């Protein structure tokens, strides 16, 4: 008797454990469990891949209260090793595509009316061969379920309800009645319906109920889901192979007679798993990415983001932008783009030791320096450069002439910023017409006096063409060739200009 009592206690303990546990997780091919994984509620499991293999799916999974593991199945893949490309079996298809590199598992299934013969899954091995031959899809001897009829006091959503394999029939009840059983049933490959036809029972109209719901496309209900549902009733939803549930798997009929959520099943095709950058964090749908969902990046205190903070998983299963970086630098200037100009260089954020340059639009020029540098103290060495409108038209050096001294555009042109002095010299063979120097007047936006020009002297043209030693873009070597209106050499003109500035 005592032994029997102890045995009963052990059996109860064993039953309790197994009824509140997730199925054991098996490591993927070319992967392993970082440590022994428990199977009880809230137990977690870490999965890693062999060197050279990339992890696709969830590397960290938790045993949930509904006895399922969080996340999606993990694969370890090596794109550098390829197997021979496969084509789906005749009258069949791949559940979710079929890549052909090491670690990828391809799963086949047959179309309605056909039965799969062979193993449904095959693995691309590290030696470049497939572990199994593709299965075949043979025509079923019978491809129909028994015909169904509408329940009393109710009907079938569609006017007719077929009974071939894969057909789904949905039911409803007349006002004053509620459905007792599944709202929809499916004809399985075994030529049987997934559940019996529901019945319509009289309902208490005073009791609030949640409206009838149907299983999401590419999914179904797990267990019973009686609708219309009474307050507190729950329904659990699961997706077909190759699809991923977005939203809560379990929905509840709330006190306001509305369902707590509307989960859907989306293609399991995903964007690659994103990891947080060094000194950064990620939130959102990142591991893996789901089409249409976003992954948000933020940097830790003291670091600036280099790149886009919000990445979207696009229909091409690629992220919308490269993963940003978190760098030590100066604050981003991108929110302070100067009027009539644009940034060039490392401006958002600044990188220590690098410059941010402001390039002004046509007709505008920098007011002061055009660049600022990010210092080691993570501060810019000056304010953001600004662009000012040119007060006067830009002067272009006439034929046989050059502008000297320090001016924007010299020697071939002279930009007309307010207060700018432009000094012209003419080469041998040309005579200056007018005053060599002119100043841009900010009040009138005109040059005063009228800018001079260089007039060619026909008798000296031949000498000019044979003896000129001036180099394009430089005044070097031109001291003996260029003269002002009085005939003085350039060196004398430059000397007088320097003395005038000194005074």
Automatic annotation (TrEMBL):
Q: Does the keyword Disulfide bond apply?
A: yes
Q: Does the keyword Disulfide bond apply?
A: yes
Ranges for region Disordered: 465-503
The residue ranges of the Sushi domain are 20-78, 81-139, 143-202, 208-267, 269-326, 328-389, 390-456
Xref: InterPro entries: SEZ6_CSMD_C4BPB_Regulators, Sushi/SCR/CCP_sf, Sushi_SCR_CCP_dom
The signal peptide here is 1-21
Q: Keyword set for this entry?
A: Disulfide bond, Lectin, Repeat, Signal, Sushi
One Pfam family linked to the record: Sushi
Q: Which cysteines are joined by disulfide bonds?
A: 49-76, 110-137, 173-200, 210-253, 299-326, 360-387
Q: Gene3D superfamilies annotated for this entry?
A: Complement Module, domain 1
Q: Which domain of life is it from?
A: Eukaryota
Q: Which GO terms describe its molecular function?
A: carbohydrate binding
For bias type Basic and acidic residues, the affected ranges are 478-495
Q: What is this protein called?
A: P-selectin-like protein
């Amino acid at each position: 008797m005592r032994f029997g009592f102890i045995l009963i206690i052990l059996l109860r303990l064993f039953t309790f454990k197994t009824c509140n546990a997730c199925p054991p997780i098996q490591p993927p091919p070319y992967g392993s469990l970082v440590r022994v994984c428990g199977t009880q509620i809230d137990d977690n499991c870490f999965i890693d891949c062999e060197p050279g293999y990339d992890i696709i799916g969830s590397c960290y999974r938790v045993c949930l209260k509904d006895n399922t593991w969080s996340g999606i199945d993990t694969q370890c893949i090596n794109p550098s090793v390829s197997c021979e490309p496969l084509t789906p079996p005749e009258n069949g298809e791949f559940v979710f595509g079929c890549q052909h590199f090491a670690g990828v598992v391809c799963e086949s299934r047959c179309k309605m009316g056909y039965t799969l013969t062979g193993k449904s899954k095959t693995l691309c091995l590290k030696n470049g061969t497939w572990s199994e031959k593709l299965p075949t899809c043979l025509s079923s001897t019978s491809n129909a379920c028994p015909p169904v009829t509408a329940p009393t006091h109710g009907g079938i959503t569609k006017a007719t309800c077929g009974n071939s394999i894969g057909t789904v029939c949905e039911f409803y009840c007349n006002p004053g009645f509620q459905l007792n059983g599944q709202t929809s049933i499916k004809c399985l490959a075994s030529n049987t319906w997934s559940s019996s036809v529901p019945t319509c029972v009289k309902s208490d109209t005073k009791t609030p109920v949640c409206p009838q719901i149907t299983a999401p496309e590419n999914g179904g209900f797990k267990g019973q889901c009686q609708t219309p549902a009474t307050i507190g009733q729950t329904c659990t939803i699961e997706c077909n192979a190759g699809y991923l549930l977005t939203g809560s798997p379990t929905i509840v009929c709330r006190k306001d007679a509305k369902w707590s959520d509307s989960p859907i099943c989306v293609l399991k095709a995903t964007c690659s798993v994103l990891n947080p950058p060094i000194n950064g964090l990620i939130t959102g749908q990142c591991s893996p990415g789901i089409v249409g969902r976003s992954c948000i990046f933020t940097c830790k205190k003291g670091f600036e983001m280099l790149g886009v903070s919000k990445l979207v998983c696009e229909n091409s299963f690629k992220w919308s932008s490269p993963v940003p970086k978190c760098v030590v630098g100066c604050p981003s200037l991108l929110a302070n783009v100067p009027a009539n100009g644009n940034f060039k260089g490392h401006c958002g954020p600044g990188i220590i030791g690098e410059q941010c340059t402001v390039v002004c639009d046509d007709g505008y020029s920098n007011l002061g320096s055009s660049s600022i540098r990010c210092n080691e103290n993570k501060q810019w060495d000056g304010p953001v450069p600004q662009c000012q409108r040119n007060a006067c038209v830009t002067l272009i050096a006439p034929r046989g002439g050059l502008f000297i001294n320090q001016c924007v555009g010299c020697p071939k042109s002279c930009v007309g910023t307010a207060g700018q002095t432009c000094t012209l010299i003419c080469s041998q063979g040309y005579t200056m017409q007018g005053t060599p120097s002119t100043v841009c007047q900010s009040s009138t936006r005109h040059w005063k006096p009228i800018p001079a020009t260089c007039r060619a002297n026909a008798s000296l043209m031949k000498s000019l063409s044979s003896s000129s030693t001036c180099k394009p873009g430089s005044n070097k070597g031109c001291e003996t060739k260029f003269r002002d209106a009085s005939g003085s050499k350039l060196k004398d003109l430059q000397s007088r200009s320097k003395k005038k500035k000194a005074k």
